[in-house]
Design brief:
CATH architecture: 2-Layer Sandwich
CATH class: Alpha Beta
Distance between the termini: 38 Å
Largest sheet: 4 strands, antiparallel
Number of helices: 3
Number of domains: 1
Order of helices and strands: EEEEEHEHEEH
Structural class: alpha+beta
Radius of gyration: 15 Å
CATH superfamily: GTP cyclohydrolase I, C-terminal domain/NADPH-dependent 7-cyano-7-deazaguanine reductase, N-terminal domain
């Protein structure tokens, strides 16, 4: 049995209103009843994620206490890549324990040959 589960079918999208322009979309939400926070930044291509669907997707993530964040972050990245095929995407997941210590993982991917350094510099 896997230490975590996602439901890609919860992710829904719509046509990008202007696919000729690069812009950054940001979505945030909680999973595991607030034990995890997920931040998604992406540059849409042809499709844009529905915000409510992203929140439903996060609410449905199931993770056991022993699961590492790395495989979860990579699965979320894979799910986003498969649903909207963004030009560029970053997924950050962090967890805070009862001792107030936090752990985070950031994974990034992009389409081959896509580049827009001035746009991504705005994220710093």
């Amino acid at each position: 049995m896997s230490a975590f589960r996602t439901d890609r079918s919860r992710l829904q999208s719509f046509a990008n209103p202007n696919p000729k322009i690069d812009y950054i979309s940001r979505l945030n939400g909680d999973a595991q009843n607030g034990a995890l926070t997920v931040s998604l930044f992406y540059v849409p291509d042809k499709l844009v994620l529905l915000t409510a669907a992203f929140q439903e997707y996060l609410a449905d993530i199931q993770i056991t206490e022993t699961a590492a964040l790395e495989p979860v972050a990579l699965q979320v990245l894979d799910d986003i890549n498969n649903e909207v095929v963004p030009r560029w995407v970053e997924v950050k997941i962090w967890a805070r324990s009862e001792s107030k210590k936090s752990t985070s993982v950031i994974v990034v991917d992009q389409q081959p040959k896509w580049t827009n350094p001035s746009l991504l510099a705005r994220l710093d």
